[in-house]
Design a protein that fits this description.
This protein is α+β, with helices and mostly antiparallel strands. The protein has helices at about 1-50, 270-275; strands spanning about 55-70, 80-100, 100-120, 130-145, 150-160, 170-180, 185-200, 210-220, 225-235, 245-255, 260-270, 290-300. The protein has a 12-stranded antiparallel beta barrel with strand order 1-2-3-4-5-6-7-8-9-10-11-12. Strand 10 (about 245-255) and strand 11 form a beta hairpin. The longest helix is centred in the N-terminal third of the chain and has 51 residues, at about 1-50.
Length: about 300
């Protein structure tokens, strides 16, 4: 009985010692976490100072998405024997020269997608068809009036590169003002702008003068990279000649620049709708255009 009591006492003492050690270790963790948080804050502040320095700022990120499937004797489908595939890729790149008295911001966007449905009951291979085809280049020069406002000139070109390159091609060129409330947000307001449209043959596309509004937001929040761009042209000649495009890119970093990416785009363009439907401009059913792509993202 005496030996059993001693054994129980030793177990209790050992448990108490371990519990006390665990509590002491937890108390030591708290100040370490505070030190890490302080160092992270200092690193972020230093990085902000580096980003604010004059000179070139360059970068790029994008998304790759793909899916493939095959069916054999899958009778619940209309095409029980078929192969399907979907491939998409986007690239967003920028090169900005930021100086005390002026800035020159340049960006490019490519969004390409292909889709395929090969029905084995039909002879021949249907191959991949173009699903998304967007190519955009933008160049903005500004002469600073103060830290937030600048006199500016903008050139923006948009077309397709897989099918019908520069047919149509949209080129906006105008002058006005640019507002940069933060390093992440750039708002372009150009009341003097001309929208030139390149097209071949007898088409509904018509160039016209108008106003240009562009809002571009680029930022990194923790591991998430965000880029949102809204571009609006308001024609002074005819509202049916106006158009707007809004694209959004999101990237979540998982490992060494690789992560998950999401691309979403919306567009309204009466002239594109009329050209696609083969009708007069006023008769077009101008439905909202959209695309999205989910897949692996990359950045550097």
């Amino acid at each position: 009985m005496k030996k059993l009591s001693i054994l129980i006492l030793l177990v209790c003492v050992s448990y108490s010692a371990n519990a006390q050690t665990a509590e002491e270790l937890k108390k030591e963790i708290a100040p370490k976490k505070a030190e890490i948080a302080k160092l992270q804050g200092e690193v972020k502040a230093l990085q902000n100072k580096i980003d604010a320095l004059p000179g070139w700022k360059k970068g790029a990120f994008g998304t790759i998405g793909a899916s493939f499937s095959g069916f054999n004797n899958w009778f619940s489908r209309n095409a029980p024997d078929a192969n399907a595939g979907n491939v998409g890729i986007t690239v967003n790149a920028y090169a900005n020269l930021i100086e005390d008295k002026f800035f020159w911001r340049n960006s490019g966007n490519i969004n390409l997608g292909w889709v395929k449905l090969d029905d084995k009951s039909i002879s021949g291979d249907e191959g991949f068809e173009t699903a998304t085809d967007v190519f955009t280049l933008t160049s903005l020069y500004g002469k600073r009036l103060n830290k937030k406002w600048a006199l500016s000139a903008l050139a923006e070109y948009r077309t397709t590169i897989i099918d019908n390159f520069n047919n149509p091609g949209f080129l906006d060129f105008g002058v006005g003002f640019t507002w940069t409330p933060t390093s992440r947000l750039v708002v372009v307001m150009h009341p003097a702008n001309y929208n030139t449209i390149f097209s071949k043959g007898d088409t509904v596309f018509t160039s016209s003068p108008g106003g240009k509004l562009v809002a571009d937001y680029t930022a990194t929040h923790y591991k998430i990279t965000v880029k949102s761009n809204f571009s609006l042209f308001a024609s002074y000649r005819d509202s049916n000649l106006s158009n707007w495009t809004w694209t959004n890119s999101f990237g979540y970093k998982l490992w060494k620049g690789i992560g998950l990416g999401l691309e979403v785009g919306l567009r309204d363009n009466q002239q594109e709708a009329a050209n696609s439907q083969g009708v007069a401009l006023i008769d077009a059913d101008n439905k909202l255009q959209s695309f999205w792509l989910l897949g692996l993202s990359y950045g550097f």
